């Protein structure tokens, strides 16, 4: 009788551990809500000369405390491309909430006149499954501007 009770207790502990692990993994896998929303984007310098600075202001709402990695690049209409330094942070730089962010990007001297694009492709990580296997992504932010000779 005592051995049978011991077996049932062990079975309950093992089954509970398996169900708790499966539940946690299911929760992590289903967690796909975007932690950041770009509310507004303004190009403060819509026409930039090669060698000049593109100034962009975005209003961003940080909803969750998640890690981010943002790949960035500039393109001109003549198939030139320059990769910009990545942006990485472990937690939102100013905490949770809505904040204006202004940044400058230098347009290379060798870009030619015409249409230009600033592109940012973010990846977000809010739990271990996303860190190692399946990060949260969203469409690239594409900001268009003009490259003009002065």
Largest sheet: 6 strands, mixed
Could you name the ranges where pLDDT drops below 50 across 5 or more consecutive residues?
Answer: none
Mean pLDDT: 90
The run of helices and strands is: HEEEEEEEHEE
- Helix tally? 2
How many individual β-strands? 9
Radius of gyration: 24 Å
Total separate domains: 2
For this structure, the CATH topology of the largest domain is Immunoglobulin-like
Tell me which CATH architecture of the largest domain applies here.
Answer: Sandwich
How would you describe the shape?
elongated
Instruction: Tell me the strand percentage band.
Output: over 45%
> CATH first level of the largest domain: which class?
Mainly Beta
List keywords for this structure.
single chain; 2 helices; 150 residues; 47% strand; Immunoglobulin-like; alpha+beta; elongated; 6-stranded mixed beta sheet; 2 domains; 3-stranded antiparallel beta sheet
